[in-house]
Write a structure and sequence with these properties.
By secondary structure, the chain is mainly beta. It has strands spanning 2-6, 9-17, 29-39, 45-56, 61-67, 75-76, 81-90, 94-105, 110-121. Helices cover 0% and strands 62% of the residues. The radius of gyration is 16 Å and the shape is elongated.
Length: 130
């Protein structure tokens, strides 16, 4: 698992390879990743937007931006958490992802929190350092 805390909001990510949805012979590799966002601060916050950078082992990067996560813009009071699972395909057997969430506090202040960089590795392939 990978974790990072920004402004008392802890983001933990656990990626896992989806062998049943992947087809290595066709250069199609799929991972899911489970994200837990915990508000360890003293103010209520809302996740408004996401920004992902997804890089394969050839160095090709794609960016994904959009509102919320999995169709939601969760509000987290102090002590609350939100969890979701999503997925990502690559044309290579490894890569990595990193990102940020745009948050807004109950006073209307906008700020960004970091999602830890995490590795996407096919368990049947030799590991490639990214």
């Amino acid at each position: 698992m990978y974790s990072q805390t920004t402004r008392s909001i802890k983001v933990t990510v656990k990626p896992f390879y989806l062998e049943d949805q992947s087809s290595p012979a066709d250069n199609h590799f799929v991972w899911a990743y489970h994200v837990r966002i915990e508000n360890r601060g003293r103010e209520t916050v809302q996740l408004r937007r996401r920004h992902w950078k997804i890089t394969d082992n050839r160095g090709q990067m794609q960016e994904v931006r959009g509102p919320g996560v999995v169709g939601e813009q969760p509000v987290l009071a102090p002590g609350e958490r939100f969890e979701y699972t999503s997925g990502v395909p690559l044309s290579t057997a490894s890569g990595f992802m990193t990102g940020r969430y745009q948050m807004v506090s109950e006073t209307g202040e906008r700020f960004e929190i970091d999602v830890p960089t995490f590795s996407l590795d096919c368990p049947d392939r030799s590991r490639v350092l990214n």
